[in-house]
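Ticket 4471: requesting a sanity check on a complex prediction with flavin-adenine dinucleotide. Repro inputs:
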Amino acid sequence: MAVLPPGVSAADFAAALSQMATALGADWVFSSDDDLGPYRDSFSPVWDTARERRAGAAVAPADVAQVQSVVRIAARYGIPLFPISTGKNFGYGGPSPNVNGSIVVDLKRMDRVIEVNDQRHFALVEPGVSYFDLYRAVQERGAKVWIDCPDPGWGSPVGNALERGVGYTMGHFRDHFGAHCGIEAVLPNGEVVRTGMGALPGSQSWQEYKYGFGPDPAGLFAQGNFGIVTKMGFRLMPAPEHYRSGLITVPRRRDFVALVDHVNYLSDSFMVGEAVYGSPLASLMGRPDFLALATKPGGASDTDLDAAASAAGLPSWQVELQFYGPEAATAAQWAYARDRICSAIPGAKAVAGEHFSLPPTPDQLANTTQPYHSLIRRNGAMGVPSLGIWKIVRDNGHVGFFPVLPRSGEACFDMQRVMCDALREFPLPPFFSAVTAPLYWHTFAFQMVFAPSVKRDDPAHNAMVDRAMRKAVEVAAKHGWGDYRAAPIYQDAVADTYSFGDHALRRMLESMKDAIDPQGIIAPGRGGIWPRRYRESRDGRTSA
Amino acid sequence: MTRPILWLIAALAPVTLYAKPAPAPSVQRGQAVFGKWCAPCHGAGRGDDGAPMLPGTAALAARYKGAVPAALQSRRDLPAEALQVFVRGGIGAMPMFRRAEVSDADIAAIAAYLRFTSAGARR
Ligand SMILES: Cc1cc2nc3c(=O)[nH]c(=O)nc-3n(C[C@H](O)[C@H](O)[C@H](O)COP(=O)(O)OP(=O)(O)OC[C@H]3O[C@@H](n4cnc5c(N)ncnc54)[C@H](O)[C@@H]3O)c2cc1C
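Returned structure tokens:
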């Protein structure tokens, strides 16, 4: 047995595991090195160093009662637990815990799709249900609903939503936690709670009204450590009849400001799905002169960038728009969007893209016949889970920093310039430059991406990546941009930046943590929230 | 009873070409496990958005440069012991898989399935 949790004796740890084996069956308690290898973070930049976070054991309960048993046994011995649903949180820590020696509660075996409802458009699932599983269940039941999935289909609605993960259809479904409706969780004392209408015995509207009455604690379970979620409901989009896409380009750099404002209007009016921005000038980044311009210290001037664009005969920016609904409605919405933008921005051009009735044929799903080079990943846009995205994974994976910024062109220019300058010292590809486009994943916010790759056999590279990650978090925060999600090794650094009122939010959450989880057994440290007994060890520093 | 078997044979047609005796239960289990856990990355079909291959198949094509087939279903050199190494240890961009996801018996079944699918494949 390799790693013990802080302050827990080997004898107590062994006693707890043997009681868990009695409760779950010995086959579902894992403690050999061989068993625990797959609970390491295969994307870890601190692999095999003292900073790597490693599980001490793992258990795989089959139902809620077994989860309760595990929690009660852990409480008896003060052993930290780390719940995972499908454990595919790559880029953000994989299945690995915040605290060394934690027992990972692997919920993969709890994989029932409890309900798919295509009259009232929701699903209720257990944590081990993957997007592939849910998609299959929808197909097998012939239900007329779409799921909204992240790029990799092997993750779970529950795990992904609890990380506030994102997908690619309409705005209110892309925010996966936002689209949840009803949570069941096992609390640190072993009790089971249900949020919203689930708290009202006999209610039939658990997946339709997420608030119920009184304060809604659902948010405490997302990026939090207040319980182990055992069921979760999700709102689903009624299967649309038709899909339509279109491309709009604008010639000058500053045109981006107006373009973003128009697309915000379309998006907030629920007329478009994910708007996918890009800069055609990115195709010039292989040219040293253009690379130097796009990454010029202090930022290149609009005039110079416009001159480069017109010399190359390229527009400065583009956006791909997507429409879902009845065919005539999608046609009218595209016509409206095209006319609105083209009449407002001189030189804007619109190209109609593919449109087809749904569901897509295999060829339409394969996305090979757009009349222009498209940045849209069609599977995501169709809510069809896949692992095709793994083609972008380099080396041994990557770590991710995705700062949230306002949905404005000006904010994008600021982030390009500030982050480009801040990360210049690191020998990495230019994640931030004058051609970096915002990602429009969450319903009402932009993000940009910094995701340097990790090389397991090159610790010096990984140490550089680690320094770059920490600097990115720090510099972004100075400008009001915060990360939306982070691996355990970065959660304290990110939580530190959300410091309004001398960390008033963290102090409030930690007071609640102490009250609800006095022994600090559920995922201590997750989201930067440490229970009293571990607070001294917050990221190696003493408590705030 | 015949429908699933016909479907199975049809699904294997691209690699088997010739009729075969009905596959053993371990092969059928292996097909299900492979379909769920391996095929999304290592299947023989095309990838997303114009990619000619799925990512795992593309990675093996790049690694072996044709010395062995890129699609696992055509590989004859993957007994359960070899699969254990890759499934539990991961490699490159491929992470490790936990016993709660893919059991040792599942891995043995995948090996049986790959023996079956690769029997008619050219090297
Ligand atoms: C190439 C690539 C592309 C990606 N694309 C996307 C994308 O498009 N969108 C996106 O959102 N992400 C993306 N990711 C990140 C990640 O792979 C997914 O978010 C994935 O869905 C998360 O893993 P999971 O669903 O298995 O969740 P899990 O790993 O099971 O859970 C995530 C975390 O939530 C907590 N948790 C899980 N279950 C419970 C529970 N039952 N109770 C309490 N807490 C729990 C744990 O802290 C756990 O670590 C991508 C990653 C890569 C490498």
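Notes from triage: The radius of gyration of chain B is 14 Å. Leaving this open until the requester confirms.
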